[in-house]
Amino acid sequence: MAVVIAIISIIASLILPALRKSYDAPMNVTCLNSLKQLGVSASNHVMDYRYYPWPPF
């Protein structure tokens, strides 16, 4: 009985990091899409109004 529990815990410890990586992947895609949309909107604003919507530093 203890051997079965040990084997199940070893298998679970191998599978859980892979599940965590698959959970983090869509968050990275969402972040990249947000950055892309920000760049596209800034570019469209410059094309329409000929100035950047934020002050230069």
Question: Your description of this structure?
Answer:
The protein has 57 residues and is mainly alpha-helical. The protein has a domain at 25-57. The chain is built from one helix and no strands. The longest helix is centred in the middle third of the chain and has 48 residues, at 2-49. It is rod-shaped and about 75 Å long. It starts with a helix and ends in an 8-residue tail after the last helix. The model has no long low-confidence stretch (mean pLDDT 86).
Please state the structural category.
Answer: mainly alpha
Total count of strands:
0
- Broad shape: rod-shaped
Give the C-alpha Rg: 23 Å
> How large is the share of residues in beta strands?
under 5%
How much helical structure, as a percent, in the residues?
A: over 70%
Features:
mainly alpha, 57 residues, 0% strand, single chain
In terms of topology, how is this protein built?
Elements: H1 2-49
Quick structural gist:
With 57 residues, the protein is mainly alpha-helical. It is built from one helix and no strands.
